[in-house]
Amino acid sequence: MTNTQNAQTNGTKTTLVIGGTGKTGRRVAERLTARGLPVRVGSRNGEIPFVWEDPGTWEAALEGVGAVYVTYYPDLAFPGAAEAVGAFSKVAVEKGARRLVLLSGRGEEGAVISEDKLKESGADWTVVRANWFNQNFSESFFLEPVLAGELALPTAEAVEPFVDADDIADVVTAALTDDKHIGRTYELSGPRLLSFHDVAAELSKATGRQITYIPVSIDDYRAVLKENGLPVEFADLFGLILDGRNASVVNGVEEAIGRKPKDFSDFAKDAAASGVWNV
Predict the structure, then answer these.
(1) What is the pLDDT of residues 241-269, one digit of tens each?
(2) C-alpha to C-alpha distance for 264 and 270, rounded to whole angstroms
(3) H/E element holding 186?
(4) In contact, 74 and 233? CB cutoff 8 Å
């Protein structure tokens, strides 16, 4: 019996996908379901609700669960995240969910504290560190600016190797279903570095209309977040781009699943074809 078969035979237990309606969680849930594996979506509005801020919801969500995809909102580097992830991981292992796969942030010192807390639970762990997602431009923070034709962001001339959420989901699904990934930390990125000027050019080409990048200050962007009811701490995450810590391509996708990651231009073509940027 192979490691994969082993994991899946034991995995007749349910996999809890925390954030199972989000960018990566939704994709992981779809992949597991396509394999015929039982999945429980962990969210506030789930059939069995899961709420990070309410530990009273954790045990019910973990009932009958053998593995968990752990994602934390708003971000692992935020205050209180490490404590919550550590406490949850202990409860998960106690309830019989030994297999924990954590989505972490590449280059985030605060996220490493959360990783360590999860490992201290005694779980069979895998850590998947990712930098900024392609899908931030089609499903999240930057969708409205793309539709408006103007990316006003505090990123100056910084570059980033944007990674595709489908690549993350493929790596996470492999980690949840094959024991060979236990104890591994994978750092994921896309295949090349892009500035936000490059991103605007790629989006313009894919949509057939002009998308402009306008550098703004961190303070101005913080004010925009506050105005839109979003956590102002998100502005601080731009520091991870500005200081260049993730300005390099890594090969975690290929290490984990044996293929090259998806390029931003291919993502942009596919997203444009879906109609998400139609105005």
Answers:
(1) 778 999 999 999 999 999 999 999 999 99
(2) 10
(3) strand 185-188
(4) yes
Which DSSP letter does residue 133 get? B
In this prediction, residues 94-110 reach a mean pLDDT of 95
Residue 10 has pLDDT above 60, yes or no: no
* Cα angle, residue 186 at apex, residues 230 and 165 outer, rounded to 5°: 45
Classify burial at 82, counting beta carbons within 10 Å of its beta carbon; exposed 0-12, middle 13-18, buried 19 or more: buried
**Residue 58 and residue 88 in contact, taking contact as beta carbons nearer than 8 Å:** yes
Closest by alpha carbon to 138, among 177, 164, 171, 114? 164
Q: What is the pTM of this model?
A: 0.92
Amino acid letter for position 226: K
Lay out the sheet containing 99-105: strands in order across: 39-42, 14-18, 65-70, 99-105, 124-130, 185-188
For β-strands 194-195 and 159-160, DSSP reports them as antiparallel
Cα separation, 8 vs 164, whole angstroms: 26
Could you give the CA distance from residue 67 to residue 11 in angstroms, rounded to a whole number? 8
Please tell me the distance from the alpha carbon of residue 249 to that of residue 161, in angstroms, as a whole number. Answer: 6
Task: Phi first, then psi: give them for residue 23, nearest 5 degrees.
Answer: -60, -50
Report residue 113: phi and psi, to 5°.
-60, -40
Q: How many residues appear in the chain?
A: 279
* Phi, psi dihedral angles at 59 (to 5 degrees): -65, -45
